[in-house]
Amino acid sequence: MKKENVFVDPNVARKNKLRDVLETKQVGTNEPPLFSWIEFNLVGLCNRRCDFCPWSDPEWRSSHVPNV
Description:
Layout: H1 11-24, H2 58-64
């Protein structure tokens, strides 16, 4: 059974527009990354479940942060 996405981040549409612009122009490798694409989660209270994030894996979480 597929879960319905209840929350849609309002920044997704803005980031998609930015990505489309960046894909059409060359960005130098010496330029810093765009900060609108970087998200800092300082307290570890993210409610997202990304495949690449170790916090999404309960086994990793229990072995690295036992009190979570």
